[in-house]
Amino acid sequence: MQTRTIDGNAIARELRVGLSKRAASVSAGGVRPGLAMIRVGDHPASSVYLRNKINACAEVGIHSQDIQLADATDESTLLGQIRILNDEPRIHGILVQLPLPRGFSPERVSEAISPLKDVDGFHPTNVGLLAVGHPRFVPCTPLGVMKLLEHEGIDPEGRHAVVVGRSNIVGKPMALLLLQKGATVTICNSKTPDLGSMTREAEILVVAAGKPKLVTAAMVKPGATVIDVGINRLPDGKLVGDVDYAGVLGTAGRVTPVPGGVGPMTIAMLLENTIASAERVARSNR
Ligand code: NAP
User: Fold this and answer.
1) Does the Cβ of 256 fall within 6 Å of ligand 1?
2) Which residue among 88, 97, 273, 280 has the highest number of C-beta atoms inside a 10 angstrom radius?
3) Rounded CA gap, 233 and 237, in Å?
4) Residue from 81, 117, 118, 120 carrying the catalytic annotation
């Protein structure tokens, strides 16, 4: 079987063209979309991701603010900074770069962000809205996966989707989105006894475990669409996903590469959520 590689870079590029138009239109109405990104301490990996996000914002016409807090910052200083941004009218999206230093509570930090500016979709109010089927902000990575499927013309309705991973950031919202589109969804976790027996049932397989090459060709149903969310850095510095990409070629119908698959879509969805937030503000100003 000929496996099609899904080019996330190309799809994200295409999406950014539409996003630029929306950003220009809402800006022309007096609301320029603004995104604030806060990081605590200096992590080289986070800095690379941040630079990519800042460049992507600039490309589509989003005003971005990079707030770097010192390593020694305590949680109350971070929460104070979030409160300032919650009240800042030029900012429509706030994100706090993870991971946070030891001693910080990711839950308290997520809950401090106004649910109306929570472009990561981690605030319990937004998690609840997604769960009841009226999403406001959807976490960027699973939203990006849904856009990839849509772009590829894959309708989840009536299909069996298997999600490997149950994190709040990826696995759980991913499963909810697929369920809402009418898929029959199985969610696997590290305690799932025979992972392959589950993944082989999948017509759509989304893997978000953070384990290099966890999914091999023998675990993939012939013709399945395989979406690899994982990003793992090997000791030699190479980035790989959770799927044995070379191994599944010839078995999967479609597969996303790492890098260049889901990653660029995550950033595109951050832009999308920020612009949608600014559009909501513009509508409420009318
Ligand atoms: P996480 O919080 O560590 O969650 C990993 C999940 O995978 C957990 O639910 C865990 O199960 C499950 N798991 C681990 N080993 C497993 C196994 N052998 N069999 C079945 N399930 C297993 O990670 P995350 O934040 O969801 O991220 C997952 C991966 O995606 C990471 O590599 C991360 O870097 C990447 N990621 C990529 C993007 C992107 O833009 N491309 C965005 C976010 C994350 P338990 O709950 O039982 O422990």
Assistant:
1) no
2) 273
3) 6
4) 120
